[in-house]
Amino acid sequence: MSKTAIALTIAGSDSGGGAGIQADLKTFSALGVYGASVITALTAQNTVGVQGIHDVPAAFVARQMESVFADIAVDAVKIGMLSVPETIEAVADGLSRSFTGPVVLDPVMIAASGDALLTEAAISTLKTRLLPLADLLTPNLPEAARLLDADIARDEAEMREQGLALLAMGPKAVLMKGGHGTGPEAVDLLVTSDETFRFSAPRIASRNSHGTGCTLSSAITAGLAKGMSLNAAVSAAKAYVHGAILHADRLAIGHGHGPTHHFFALW
């Protein structure tokens, strides 16, 4: 029997099903990867916004990680919402003890609705404890600016400059996501110590984009779990997310920013 590709998501739950743990597991499944999960927080959330956040105790986050790693041969890990310093510490400690494979860190700070998902106190802990453990950091433009205490990048040159600045904080590579930019193309830049790679797709006008960042980072993680190179995983993930947004309007979910269509190729 061949090895089953397995990815683990460490993130918060979205009760509306469009982002967070739910989006990650849907993405893993759509891309042919078995998904395991460690839940860091519960959110009362829908397509309109976030109505509440309940953090899982850090000790129980650690217990979940111990359970998964003790039994399941995880190939790649995606990290999403970690709202408090204690949880970040627990995740960093757990990875340092039990996992040596690729780690994709999506620094989830603000929901698409504008609701804050990461406390101010947690940001410095994220920088010092988790960025150095990440094989890939995947910030959008506002998140990159917040991590650097800088203005939001206005063009590709500034995106690359900020990617290099983030690279100096410890991750092996940085994917600067240009979804918040302007123009006919949505351009992402993969910045490494050796080179910068450009990925682009036509920008799609759709209000159903909830969970796009979670979906992209988990799609990259799925590719890495299947043994793809980082470049190939990013390229495949970009194409998958483009399709998920392109077909999102086939879904009628909620009254606000609806989710992307994770199963557009299957339904």
Task: Describe the fold and architecture.
There is one protein chain. The chain is α/β, with parallel strands linked by helices. The chain has eight helices and nine strands. The strands form two sheets. A six-stranded mixed beta sheet has the order 3-2-1-4-5-6. The longest helix has 17 residues, at 230-246.
The string of secondary-structure elements, in order, is EHEEHEHEHEHHEEEHH
Q: How far apart are the first and last residues' alpha carbons, in Å? A: 28 Å
Find the count of extended strands (DSSP E, 2+ residues).
Answer: 9
Structural class: alpha/beta
Strand content: 15-25%
> Any idea of the CATH topology?
UDP-N-acetylmuramoyl-L-alanine:D-glutamate ligase
Mean pLDDT reading? 93
Largest sheet, strands/sense/barrel: 6 strands, mixed
Taken from the alpha-carbon principal axes, the silhouette is globular
